[in-house]
Recover the amino acids of this structure.
């Protein structure tokens, strides 16, 4: 698929027992999936320009969406329970959805921040920041 609409994307994350992937996509409005790579300076004396070698990768996922405390699958139920646990949890992000053959990025992450807001003129919402731990695997949903 050359293009995809954001309404079709899916985001799954393991619950606090790291046992089951929960699809919190129905509560998510935005997924910002950011990846970067260090550039290690290899410049030596006499060079006219800097040179680099690729280093370690890093990444972060920022989610925004609607607050929901439905048992086992709600955004608050799943995400807030990840604060304070001492293990990484798995995630899967499907920019074009999670149907068979759709592209997915998967890996491990740590929830580093979870915020809730309740504006007087809008729905109760959440934002969450997840730090990617280790490599990201690019594959497809089966």
């Amino acid at each position: 698929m050359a293009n995809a609409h954001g309404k079709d994307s899916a985001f799954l994350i393991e619950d606090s027992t790291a046992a089951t992937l929960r699809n919190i996509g129905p509560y998510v409005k935005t997924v910002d999936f950011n990846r970067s790579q260090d550039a290690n300076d290899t410049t030596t004396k006499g060079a006219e320009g800097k040179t680099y070698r690729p280093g370690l990768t890093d990444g972060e996922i920022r989610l925004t969406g609607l607050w929901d405390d439905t048992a086992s699958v709600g955004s608050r139920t799943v995400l807030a329970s990840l604060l304070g646990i001492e293990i990484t949890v798995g995630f899967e992000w499907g920019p074009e959805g999670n149907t068979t053959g759709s592209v997915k990025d998967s890996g491990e992450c740590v929830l580093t921040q979870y915020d809730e807001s309740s504006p007087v003129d809008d729905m109760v919402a959440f934002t969450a920041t997840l730090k990617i731990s280790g490599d990201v695997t690019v594959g497809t949903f089966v």
The domain at 7-36+55-136 is CATH 2.40.10 (Thrombin, subunit H). The radius of gyration is 18 Å. The helical segments are 75-80.
